[in-house]
């Protein structure tokens, strides 16, 4: 079995590693891995909500017309909304 301590060593938290420019305010609530291919942006991981719930998520956006940075910002905004609501 793997506990959250192990997960936190595998997945970088917000503001660290591939998330260094994202989730920088109080980054201890998200632990995720990024993925990028030509025309594809993905992010999968664990998210702690404001109410203390632990959620697993995966977001994948392909065939987009925006830059990868713009898509990552939109995913960040979406996940911040999930964090606040649940």
What is the CATH topology descriptor?
Double Stranded RNA Binding Domain
Strand content: 25-35%
N- to C-terminal distance: 27 Å
Number of separate helices: 2
Structural class: alpha+beta
What features would you describe in this structure?
- It contains two helices and three strands, in the order H-E-E-E-H.
- With 86 residues, the chain is α+β, with helices and mostly antiparallel strands.
- It has a single domain (4-85), classed as Double Stranded RNA Binding Domain.
- The protein has a three-stranded antiparallel beta sheet, covered by helices on one side.
- A hairpin with a 5-residue loop joins strand 2 and strand 3.
- The protein is globular.
Which terms summarize this structure?
2 helices; 3-stranded antiparallel sheet; 3 strands; alpha+beta; 86 residues; Double Stranded RNA Binding Domain
Give the structure's gist in a few sentences:
The chain is α+β, with helices and mostly antiparallel strands and about 90 residues long.
Topology:
Blueprint: H1 4-10, E1 30-37, E2 40-48, E3 54-62, H2 68-85
Antiparallel strand pairs: 1-2, 2-3
